[in-house]
Design goal:
By secondary structure, this protein is of the alpha+beta class.
């Protein structure tokens, strides 16, 4: 079947067959935000969170999450990622942690899901490490901000 769909001719869910697609360099960047109380942001900034260095642990968790995407998202292709970068920083304009993840591959399918998973896992790790002092934190704005490679070309979020 040459059509890229998650359904077979009987309407059953299946992994899309990408075997006929060309391998190209593909990159995706996703972002997320964890909003918190001012005191929580201060604890992160000063290294006062009892569970440790929040941003370093969340960065590692995000990288690990990207690598486990096919275990978490049904019908997602297992990919051999060539690069995963996860950056976390305290926001300058609000008590929040800003997260950006970029995934790269030379392959037949994109890495948007891996970048989104990296951001989501990093954000959940920030929440987990800080929930003892701030259960009201919110995880928002999880989105793809850049995608390049493949037949559909380049996407840049507005």
């Amino acid at each position: 079947m040459s059509e890229f769909t998650h359904f077979d001719e009987r309407g059953n869910a299946r992994m899309v067959d990408v075997s006929a697609k060309d391998e190209t360099a593909r990159t995706a960047t996703a972002k997320a935000r964890v909003t918190m109380a001012e005191d929580t942001a201060r604890l992160i900034r000063e290294g006062g969170v009892k569970k440790g260095d929040v941003l370093s642990v969340a960065r590692l968790a995000g990288i690990m999450g990207a690598k486990r995407t096919p275990d978490l998202i049904p019908l997602c292709h297992p990919l051999s990622l060539s690069s995963v970068e996860v950056e976390l920083a305290l926001s300058d304009d609000a008590p929040a942690v800003e997260i950006a993840a970029t995934c790269k591959i030379a392959g037949k399918t994109g890495v948007e899901m891996e970048a989104l998973t990296a951001c989501s896992v990093a954000a959940l790790t920030v929440y987990d490490m800080c929930k003892a002092v701030d259960k009201a934190m919110t995880i928002t704005d999880v989105r793809v901000t850049h995608k390049s490679g493949g037949k559909s070309g380049t996407y840049e979020a507005a």
